[in-house]
Amino acid sequence: MSAEAHAEGMVLPLRPTDEESDSLSNAADALLAEVGRLSQGRFEPILVGSAAKGTFLANPDIDVFMMFPEETSREELERIGLEVGAAVLDGETRYAEHPYTHGDFMGFEADVVPCFKIEDATRLKSNVDRTPFHTEFIIGELPSERRDDVLLLKGFMKGVGVYGAEIRVEGFSGYLCELLVIKYGRFIDVLRAAAQWDDAPIHIIDPPGGSDAWDDAEMKPGRPKFRRPLNVVDPVDHTRNVSSALSRNALDTFVLAATEYLSEPDDRFFFPVPRKVPDRDECIEWLKVRETFTVHVQMDRPDLIDDVLYSQIKKAHNKLLAALSEAEFTVVTSDILASEHIEIIFEAHPALHPETMVRRGPPEDNKNTEKFRSKWGKNVFSEGGRLWAEVPRKFRTPDAAIEAALADRGIGKDLNEAGRSAVITTGDDLSGKVEAMSLLMDRRVPWHR
User: Fold this and answer.
1) What is the sign of the dihedral through the CA atoms of 40, 43, 47 and 49?
2) Which of 51, 172, 369, 371 yields a CA-CA distance of 20 to 30 A from 247?
3) Distance of CA 132 to the CA centre of its chain
4) Which residues make Cβ contacts (< 8 Å) with residue 206, sequence separation at least 6?
5) The pairing of beta strand 204-205 with beta strand 44-48
6) Is 208 found in the same domain as 227?
7) Same domain, yes or no: 368 and 382
8) DSSP class per residue in 61-111
9) Which residues pair with 280 in a beta bridge?
10) Which of 102, 95, 90 is nearest to 64 (CA)?
11) Which residues, 6 or more positions from 55, have their beta carbon under 8 angstroms from its beta carbon?
12) Residues 108 and 160 grouped into a single domain
């Protein structure tokens, strides 16, 4: 079967049913009306996001923005915005650049967000002010017959694990998916274009219709330079890169998936088989064959929004990885998991270092020899025309290196306290960590499982 024919067959499973669409429409209309009822002329309510654009997959959020006049003070915008949000949603206050309300409305997750009503998307008073422009642009530029192509692209990206610009994924936002369909046309044409994206450090996609703000060969003077692996010019603000959150790994995964799907289409690109969670015996045998061991760090999960949480988890992971490397433990693979607890797991070797290590010193005729001798005393010896010193090793075990790194704090404002009570296990102690082990044991891309 050709990729085109296969894609046509995937539209129906991804397209919301009439009942789902009607349910969303009724909830969105009701929430918009409730917010409007409380506006009292102070702001203009507007529906934004995929619910407004008709490009939603199953279980979408409902996003209602309250557009305040530009002359409104930030304090008044926040105060009124939170009052209205609390009145219409059963939820909680969340924080981005300024606070907003997230909660449940008629069975859907919903956000009620205050913003400023501005005339020019390049003259923002807050970062969310750009969103109504995005919604207006997509509604005006995306042909109705291309909405299914957006659903296919979003479903494909979700299936291969690169959908979402949040820090947890560092992938493609819904708005970016919509722009790619407007730019290239059909879902298949987006994949064909992606399969040709090279690994150049700067790759620029002009907005639909072209732009005199950028040139593929040369940056225009006076414009900020785009330095991400993929750069998509925002058609409503030519100084902004829509794909700034996209990581190199997510881009490479998408390019690989696009290439392989065009060659051999399969349902698994859209609906992958879940990763198998191994049992304890499988974990032990896997480590035995590889002659490695695990270092598992578990800590309490703070009550944070995902972007803040994952930003700190990734920071903690990188710090612990650096600590193991500095202590000369070779990390083969590692990963993170955030469910009931935060888990950071490393596959490494060796499990135990000797009590001492040899430190390299200067050549014997170097001016720094006396300083080296003074520092290490009787531990210094000469070999091959160079001084060396056999010195006590700071960390013999990986858990000792991890403990020291956690005690040093600096792993994230909200994780520092959790890190102090972290549970660190190594070796064959696999109780409670087989799910994290599965991340190390099966690193295949989702469509190959």
Assistant:
1) negative
2) 51
3) 23
4) 214, 216, 233
5) unpaired
6) yes
7) yes
8) -EEEEEEEETTS-HHHHHHHHHHHHHHH-EEEEEESSSEEEEEEETTEEEE
9) none
10) 102
11) 138, 142, 147, 150, 151, 154, 174, 177, 178
12) no
Residue 3 domain-assigned (yes or no): no
Distance CA 345, CA 317 (A): 9
Q: What's the domain range around 161?
A: 144-269
- For residues 379 and 412, state if they share a domain: no
Within-domain flag for 213: yes
Residue corresponding to tokens 């939603």: 56
Each residue's pLDDT expressed in tens, for the chain with a length of 449 residues: 899 999 999 999 999 999 999 999 999 999 999 999 999 999 999 999 999 999 999 889 999 999 999 999 999 999 999 999 999 998 899 887 789 999 999 999 999 999 999 998 878 888 899 999 999 999 999 999 999 999 999 999 999 999 999 999 999 999 999 999 999 999 999 999 999 887 665 567 776 554 443 444 334 444 445 667 888 888 888 878 899 999 999 999 999 999 999 999 999 999 999 999 999 899 999 999 999 989 999 999 988 888 889 999 999 999 999 999 999 999 999 999 998 899 999 999 888 899 998 989 999 888 889 999 999 988 999 999 999 999 999 999 999 999 999 888 777 778 888 887 889 998 777 778 899 999 999 999 999 99
- Given a contact cutoff of 8 angstroms between Cβ atoms, the answer to whether 433 and 425 are in contact is yes
**Residue 318: how many other CB atoms lie within 10 Å:** 12
Residue (of 175, 162, 37, 34) closest to 110 by Cα position = 34
Let me know if residue 386 belongs to a domain: yes
| Whether residue 66 is found in the same domain as residue 177 | no
**Domain check: are 377 and 404 in the same one?**
no
The domain boundary residue, chosen from 124, 141, 158: 141
On whether both 328 and 254 belong to a single domain, the answer is no
Burial of 154: CB neighbours in 10 Å, binned 0-12, 13-18, 19+: buried
Spatial distance between the Cα atoms of 200 and 17, rounded to a whole number of angstroms: 41
Read off the CATH number of the domain in which 190 is found. 1.10.1410.30
231-234/204-205 β-pairing: parallel
Phi, psi of 55 (to 5 degrees): -120, 35
Q: Are residues 161 and 207 in the same domain?
A: yes
Q: Is the pTM of this model over 0.85?
A: yes
Buried-state track 26-64, b at ≥16 Cβ within 10 A, e below 16: ebbeebbebbbebeeeebebbbbbbbbbbbbbeebebbb
Domain end among 141, 176, 199: 141
